[in-house]
Amino acid sequence: MANLTLSIDDDLLRRARIRALEHDTSVNAVVREFLEDYAGTADAELAMTEFVALARRRSASSGPGGRTWTREELYDRGRS
Questions:
Q1: Residue 37 sits in which domain range?
Q2: How far is CA 18 from CA 10, 24, 37, 78, in A?
């Protein structure tokens, strides 16, 4: 695991440590979690872009007029 050195205002670090203690964690863990979320955004955006592109290439549709359902059809759960 790599180490990272940050320059942070003393008061900001003090307040971050207090808040981390209040949440039973550490500033290190908070920063690590933030960076994991931040770095993971690109993967999520790429996955969404690929999904949308795949969906647009599919020819499935509900027909020219589209399919509509009545409320009764939508909520008819096995009543026969």
A1: 10-57
A2: 12, 10, 22, 56
